[in-house]
Amino acid sequence: MSAYHVRGICPEFKCTGKLIPSLASELRDDPYYKKQYASTKIIPMVAREHTAQLTKEAAGKYQRDFEEGRINVLSCSTTFEMGVDVGELEATFLRNVPPETANYIQRAGRAGRRTSSTAFSVTFARRNSHDINFFNHPAEIISGKIRPPYVEINNDKIVQQHVNSANGRIWTSRYINTVPDKNWPAFRYYECQSCKHISLLKEPAVVGVVEQEEGGNEKPCPICSQMMRAKKFMVPIFGFSTALEEEPAVIRNTKLQRGYSSRIHFWGIGELDTYQKEQRKEKELFTAGRRVKAGYSPNGQLVVLNRGHNGAGLWVCRSCGFMKEYPTKPEHKNKWHQEARAT
Questions:
Q1: Is the pLDDT of residue 211 over 50?
Q2: pTM above the 0.70 mark?
Q3: Nearest to 317 by CA among 306, 304, 331
Q4: How many domains does the chain have?
Q5: Within a domain: 336
């Protein structure tokens, strides 16, 4: 419907139809919408969030309310894939393309499990390589191969995460673990105070030595050409610890709050073997009068950079690993509740 036209051509994209004249009085007298609102029962939307952070009691109540109609929309995490029966679920909306076919079947297959309803599933493809690939080839995610379930028992990180998540408790990290005669790997990065660009390099740095003493304190920003100041980050390869006297918190129904903001940055390409080197691809593109160099390579490395509140940084004791907001050097105790010297 349009108040204007050019030779009766429909302005809708790819529509080949023709516009026909219609009087406003005819539209006002059309009882279609009046009949719809008068004959259809208006149902309010009641939505709840269903995640692994809920207690068993709260999760069970949400499921019962959903089955009985008191809740008609559930916003769920991947914990809803298996082991939860919500009865006559009619529709699912996936906010991204699942990683594999098995995940897609579990999530989309939630709808229409009862014979009295017809399944309807919509998947939103985000603008990343994974989602766009299956948007262009949807049959691959729907009818792809499903490998048997397995548990990677040799992955120490996964085992440790399961141990840490036991009994529904949360421990707060207060210390970065230290190992005698070993240092945390540290590297230099540069931050532009003008445009806030961060440049990560694989230049080794020394924990406990200020950048002015190491040299190479500034370099020009590749974005705005202003001078960037050198900073450093360390890699906590020995893990974290809580304080001995601190009791773990009980998991509640609310979302966990992050202590500090963090961002993910690309840190370049790691070491490649002969086969991986053959997989590397590079291409130059020209867009809007500019040259863009694009590349693909295995073993890309990412860094989650925790810079403290407002990017001020963190102070870490080299002796016991106690950490606090920079620039304070607080008197503190080590994780065994013993007096420690700030270093």
A1: no
A2: no
A3: 331
A4: 2
A5: yes
> With contact defined as beta carbons under 8 Å apart, do 251 and 168 qualify?
yes
Strand partners, 189: 200, 231
Residue 172 amino acid letter: T
Burial of 21 (0-12, 13-18, 19+ CB in 10 A): exposed
Question: Same structural domain for residues 189 and 328?
Answer: yes
Same-domain status, 205 and 336: yes
Contacts 24+ apart (CB under 8 A), 42-45: 43/72, 45/72, 45/73
pLDDT higher at 227 or 110: 227
For 140-175, b/e burial (b = at least 16 CB within 10 A) is ebeeeeeeeeeeeeeeeeeeeeeeeeeeeeeeeebb
The confidence score (pLDDT) of residue 295 equals 86
Entry field: residues in the chain: 343
Q: What are phi and psi of 58, to 5 degrees?
A: -65, -40
Query: Edge to edge, what strands does the sheet with 198-204 contain?
Result: 198-204, 186-192, 227-234, 218-220
Q: Is residue 35 part of a domain?
A: no
Structure tokens at 296: 């693909």
Model confidence band, residue 212 (pLDDT cutoffs 50, 70, 90): very low
Which residue is associated with the tokens 């999760």?
A: 59
pLDDT one-digit tens code per residue, 76-112: 877 665 555 666 678 889 999 998 888 888 888 777 6
Instruction: Tell whether the model's pLDDT for residue 136 goes beyond 60.
Output: yes
Question: Can you say how many angstroms the Cα of residue 310 is from the centroid of all Cα atoms in its chain?
Answer: 21
